[in-house]
Design goal:
The complex is a heterodimer. Chain A contains three helices and 21 strands. Chain A has helices at 2-18, 26-35, 448-457, and strands spanning 56-66, 77-91, 94-110, 127-128, 133-147, 155-170, 175-193, 197-215, 222-229, 232-238, 247-263, 267-283, 289-307, 313-334, 341-366, 376-391, 396-415, 418-438, 461-472, 478-489, 499-509. In chain A, the strands form two sheets. Chain A has an 18-stranded antiparallel barrel. A three-stranded antiparallel β-sheet of chain A has the order 4-9-10, with no helix packed on it. Chain A starts with a helix and ends with a strand. By secondary structure, chain B is mainly β. Chain B has three helices and 32 strands. In chain B, strands 15, 16, 23, 24, 25, 26, 27 and 28 form an eight-stranded mixed β-sheet that branches. Chain B has a seven-stranded mixed β-sheet with strand order 22-19-18-13-10-29-32. In chain B, strands 2, 3, 5, 6, 7 and 9 form a six-stranded antiparallel β-sheet that branches. The chains are: A mainly beta, B mainly beta. At the A-B interface, strand 9, strand 10, strand 12, strand 13 and strand 14 of A face helix 1 and helix 2 of B.
Chain lengths: 510, 422
Amino acid sequence: MHRILLTILTLCLGVMNAQAGMVRNAAQQEQNYRNSLWWNSSNAAAQAFRPIAVSNELSLSWKNTSGAWRPVQQAERSNSLALDTRGVAMVGAFRVWGDFAFRDLFEQGLNYNCALYEVPEDLPYYIVDPQVSRWNRQEYDMGVGLASPVMWDRASFGIDLRYVNKVGAKQRDPRVETRVMNLKLAPSVTIRMGKQHLFGLSGLFHYDFELSDPMNNSPVNQAVAVSRGLGEGTGSVVGGNTGLAEFMYTTYRYGGGVQYNFNGPVDLLVDAGLRLQDVDVEQQISLPKNMGCTRQTLLHADAQLLWGSKSSNKLSLGVYSRDTEGIEKVQHRDNTPFHQKWVTDAENKMSFFHRIHAEACYDHQFGIEETTGYTWKLGGSCLFDSEDDSYPYAPASYDWSTVFVQAFGARNFALRGSSLLASLSAGYGYSLGGSYVYGGTANALLQQPYLADIAYRTDDYLQFSGRLSWAFGGGSTRYLLTAGANYNFVPADRSRPDRLLANLSFGILF
Amino acid sequence: MKKSLLLFAAASAALLLAASCKKGDDLTTVSATIKVDESGIAAGIEKPGSYTITLTNSTSGKTVTAETENGSATVNGLIPGTYSVTASSSPSTSGGFTYRFSGSEPAASIVKDAVEVTLQIQAVKESALIIKEAFIAGDSYDLTDPNDIWSGKTYFRDQFWEIYNNSEETVYADGVALAQILYASWNYSTIYQYDIPNPEKYVFVQTIWQIQGSGTDYPIKPGESFIVAQWAADHSAANLANGHGVNTSSAEFEAIEGEGTAGYGASAITITDGPSINMKRAVNAVGYNMPQWLVSTTDGALVMFHPSTPLKDEDFLTATNSESTKAREVAIDDVLDAIQWYEGDDIWGDATKHNLPAILDAGCSKFSAYCNKSIARKVASTRADGTKVYQDTNNSTDDFELVAPELRRGGAKIPSWNTWAK
């Protein structure tokens, strides 16, 4: 593991040193990503036609989160340190990019999870425990991308690779140590048709494996419950002779997408795709018993539009729909001596999860002709989120919808030898309603996370955020110091908790 | 540009529309026919007219019930799965005895439509002596975290069983035996099998403690009970549970054969031999040398029985699927009462892990180890003379409740031959 990290870090640093970046401050950094439409898509090959500007970054950051207003399985308080680096460069005729991040997280006030590093919305098969706990986590996240040179004056090939390794440990009985490995491959091809049209095809293969080992350091066993979704599940214990064994989560995700780019009076990129995901959950490596599985279908479509002088206007639209089925297998144990195994007799679709997300964002930049990036930016965004889950046999249902609108602005000050970017935003989240209904008789512990979460999801809330980024230093290296905060609260009921996120980072732009 | 945006908006709307049509939010259900086979009931015993069939899904724990007509019942709308299927009926009286009827199939696979399940019905004679209260879990105390009952010390030497005469006639404690069931390995990876004719007519144990006597030494009158203690002592003593624990020094019987020592070094405890009558470890198939009887504080089962043949402490049965496992068989017909207890719903939910057949206990008690609670039988009625009749449906789920341990709860009387109880 250490050798892999050193290799990736060396590669990133080498890439950074290979070519000095053109990004000199936060506004230019933001513009670089904003205007690189293909960089924001799922197609790596198009970097040969429409490359992002070369930029290299290295930063050290600290984040602090506090406040009880959040999904119940997120930490109430957390501190994290992260080392991030990324770079883009030409290596021969190939465009290469890479990034690496190491994150150390210290979290408190987590509840109702004694199995997973992070509990996905549509994965109900995990261990629920009643003890509010601390968690320590570490993440190693590294990616590499490659785009070939344009071949036959028409086509290019590319690939994105990502490897993530995470480990998390719950610090209170019942404890758990969970290790996650993600591997992603996304090959792509881009074809030019005429001067203004680019077509792209991308594929996706993603493999996740998580091994979660619950344990107990107390002299007596810990009462927990194994969830099957929406408050259904079975009581169990961690510890002792008959306590739960390790859980294994195996995920395969595969799919593809098509992209179209028109670059004429306007620059339009449309990216649509389909993704299929299978997750299998098993208990006990030596005698695997299926604890449930999910089958997910996700459709997405995104569009980005740039127009105006120097792409001063940008409109982004995005929508995805995700449908997941929770499947429980009926198994019996074959007790043939020395060849014991669990045999599946039938599969039942027992739970259903539907999620829709849609967003629209517009911004206008003023003074782009300045060498230090834009002088002003104004814009707004609107997000719609909806979840509709059910467990008909219980019966149980969980649904909510929210609209979030936001206005934002930024001013980029050109100072002597440095520049300062000040950003502010204000937003309002409006709940369109929601409810959690449970009609079953399962362990009451299993309903607690949903009861807590529906209160959060149906709050109307205000959000304010601000950020200052100061770039300074001369020569080929610029330093970037950033401080920001984001505050959420429920204005109609000040007795409801709030949430504050603060971050501070120091970086180098090459 | 406008055209492009319009095209995208239309595609997005179509996507949202397609997504809003929920697909597959329906369940497949199946039906099953349950038949009862009464051919195993001895002649002369009046058979019930009908049975209550209970199907319990082993995953969800949900139950469905139906009544038999002409020996069968059909149940519709079942989620495909593995079910514990039981048949029970009201007791009947024949030849001066009361009989209970039941049959069970612990793991019926009902995964397709129109499955047939046949239950063999057995008749068990109702007993005068019942387990009225059992303190098995043990104690936890001196908590460092008041919100966490597991943060302190644990103690379990004050385990006791209270045996009560639930009938209106005097019976005798002589020869009554107690044993913990040996059903499977510690993690249920091996369910022990034995080479014995009609194994379904027996349960299997490793250690049997028995009350000695001539047959009439220890009368128990209606409304009286006798206590069997693991070790009859005042466990609140400073060198034991130090202000906690149960005082079982008044117990009529204790499961020790004499004074001994438990533990090692600085933690060693002297097992004192007080006035309570010592039982005999009549069977010791495991070669257990500890001076007292330790019953599992979690996930176990116990039978109280009166052996119809003398107990043999040799020539044990060897499990066919575990060479090192030795056991003694106990005929179900000899069992007076039985209880089983589990900590997690997932163990009880898997009928293949039930330590007892449903004819002995169709339910279970649920408690955590060291929870400071005992299981006590519910009162069914009170006689004119004030003595209580306790509920006994052979179903621990219904018959017992969790309470703070108490000897002779509800005013159970002490036998006259117990001269040391205060």
